[in-house]
Specification:
The complex is a heterodimer.
Chain A (H helix, E strand, L loop, with lengths): L7 H21 L4 E13 L9 E9 L7 E6 L2 H8 L7 E7 L2 E3 L5 H4 L3 H14 L23 E2 L5 E2 L7 H4 L9 E2 L3 H34 L5 H27 L5 E5 L9 E8 L6 E20 L2 E19 L2 H5 E7 L8 E3 L2 E13 L5 E7 L11
Antiparallel strand pairs in A: 1-2, 1-4, 2-3, 4-5, 8-16, 9-10, 10-13, 11-12, 11-15, 14-15, 15-16
Helix pairs in contact in A: 1-4, 6-7
Chain B lengths: L2 H9 L4 E6 L3 E2 L4 E9 L5 E13 L2 E15 L2 E9 L7 E2 L3 E11 L4 E9 L13
Parallel strand pairs in B: 2-9
Antiparallel strand pairs in B: 1-3, 3-6, 4-5, 4-8, 7-8, 8-9
The chains are: A alpha+beta, B mainly beta.
């Protein structure tokens, strides 16, 4: 069963709101006015309230501004920790205080720590960007027709017209009809290896974030503060890291699988037409359970944007489509077989027109028990239905 | 044209210029058929019919011309019928980043009138989308 990333929203949305509020709160403390204060006393006392932490580092101080408070404290579990903290606030030393109304705070979190609150928000934006479907550039309008007017008038037929020059476009080049069909591997081994290394690198980054957030949560909890965002973030990033490690290992194992030899005897294929395929595996494919052939189409554009005096080119991908076209669970057919595959009638042909591309791939997946599945992709050209010589 | 028909046209003073297609959906191998109708106070001069392909990639739209016909020295009113052969492709398409639309544009150069009729073209007749199938 595939995990739907939409379910992450249940967790990420409230977490993002909470972390966002904390981030705004943290940011609001940065414009606080800095005042010079002198420490009058700094000592460890036993709290007289219900604090579970029995070592209170208490600092009494006076500042330039007499209207503000003069007392700050922080609780610790260990006396040594409280003393280490108080070492920064020796008696008669001059320290910086942060004035917020009638209150002075001698410490605040470093600004870089506030950026951790942004991680769930960034993940939420990334997830929303991936799962929210985007509409086409224009609304889907019904074909427009001018209002019909019935008149009695002189009629002219096509024979009295001048046929204008042939089209301004060489139509055949835009969907690659000049190239005969060839099946060529898309995902060579070294690409798969780099993919695996990339996944591992991402796993290490997420593991580090998770470890740091976990440690931070533990320390804040131990010092009596609310572990807050760090505690919520740690398991979440750990789960992502585990998922990435798993995918990375799968990719490495997949490198050991044999490559299929796939041949096509169809020189051209088009919507509603047939694709004749044959395949054969050299080498062991272990406990292969199923072979699945699919067509995968994706739209791509190249965007040219002006940036200062230069133009910036970027590539964007749009929607993709996945059509399972053939599958078999028979062991003899998984190793070697042939099939005539009917191409769906309602699919778009390949396109290569200016900055626009619609690319099609034939994807072969062999599901293997107790081992990484085999995935192979081949570039194919789907052409428009030929007007002459239709089957 | 009979005298009676000409009299009918003279009675109606309203100026107009319009295009009609016989269908809104076409399949590979079809011809786009329709007619242009007009009525002006004086002769129409030249009327041009163009089969146009409009491609949109994100915000950039381009129009390409696929086929066309032109009538010259036309009277002040009349109907021109046309039948234009569609190329093999590209098909009408509505994607997230790419959009392909087909239309027929008619222009009366003497009176600066332009009208357009959109239609869809694909093996199913409907604009195609990249949608996963079963």
């Amino acid at each position: 069963m595939k995990f739907d990333p939409k379910y992450l929203l249940v967790f990420l949305v409230p977490l993002s709101f909470w972390c966002g509020a904390r981030f705004i709160n943290e940011m609001a403390s940065y414009p606080w006015q800095k005042v010079s204060c002198t420490v009058k006393s700094s000592e460890i006392v036993v709290p007289d309230d219900n604090s579970k932490l029995r070592n209170r580092a208490q600092i009494i101080f006076s500042c330039d501004d007499p209207t503000v408070g003069i007392y700050n404290w922080k609780d610790f579990a260990e006396q040594s920790e409280a003393q280490k903290f108080l070492d920064q606030y020796k008696v008669r030393s001059i320290v910086i205080g942060y004035k917020n109304g009638n209150e002075i705070k001698l410490w605040r979190k470093p600004i870089w720590m506030s950026s951790f609150y942004l991680i769930p928000i960034v993940l939420l934006i990334f997830l929303l960007h991936k799962i929210v479907p985007k509409g086409p550039a224009r609304s889907v309008a019904a074909p427009r027709q001018s209002q019909a007017i019935v008149i009695k008038s002189p009629a002219f037929n096509q024979s009295s017209a001048i046929v204008l020059d042939d089209a301004s476009q060489n139509w055949k080049t835009i969907y690659g009809v000049q190239n005969l069909q060839s099946i060529s591997g898309l995902k060579p081994r070294h690409a798969q290896m780099w993919q695996s290394i990339g996944l591992l690198a991402a796993a290490i980054i997420f593991s580090a974030i998770s470890a740091f957030a976990g440690l931070r949560a533990y320390k804040t909890f131990k010092s009596g503060d609310s572990p807050g965002c760090a505690a919520a973030l740690a398991p979440f990033t750990a789960l992502i890291a585990i998922g990435l490690v798993r995918r990375s290992i799968q990719q490495f194992l997949g490198l050991l699988n044999p490559r299929p030899n796939v041949q096509s005897s169809s020189p051209t294929i088009w919507p509603g037409g047939n694709l004749d395929l044959s395949w054969r595996y050299e080498g062991k494919i272990g406990t292969a359970r199923k072979i699945i052939f699919s067509l995968v189409g994706i739209e791509k554009i190249e965007v040219k944007e002006k940036s200062g005096n230069t133009y910036k080119y970027s590539k964007e991908e749009g929607t993709s489509a996945h059509y399972p076209i053939h599958e078999s669970s028979e062991a003899y057919e998984i190793r070697e077989g042939r099939a005539r595959i009917k191409i769906p009638e309602n699919i778009m042909h390949s396109l290569n027109f200016g900055s626009m591309k619609i690319e099609w791939k034939l994807k072969v997946e062999v599901q293997i028990g107790y081992w990484a599945d085999l995935h192979e992709e081949y570039a194919i050209q789907i052409q428009p239905v030929p007007i002459s010589g239709r089957p | 044209m009979s005298e009676e028909e000409l009299e009918d046209l003279k009675d109606d003073d309203e100026e107009f210029f319009s295009i009609q297609l016989t269908r809104e959906q076409y399949r590979p191998g079809d011809n786009v058929e329709g007619n242009v109708q007009w009525k002006f106070p004086e002769s129409a001069d030249t009327i041009t019919v163009r089969l146009l392909l409009e491609t949109t990639a994100k915000w950039n739209t381009e129009k390409s011309y696929a086929a066309g016909l032109q009538w010259k020295q036309l009277p002040s009113s009349g109907i021109c019928s046309f039948s234009l052969q569609l190329p093999e492709g590209p098909y009408s398409f509505i994607g997230q980043k790419i959009r392909i639309d087909w239309s027929v544009e008619v222009e009366c150069s003497g009176w600066s009138y332009t009208e357009e009729a959109e239609f869809s073209f694909s093996p199913t007749g409907e604009p195609l989308e990249l949608k996963s199938g079963k």
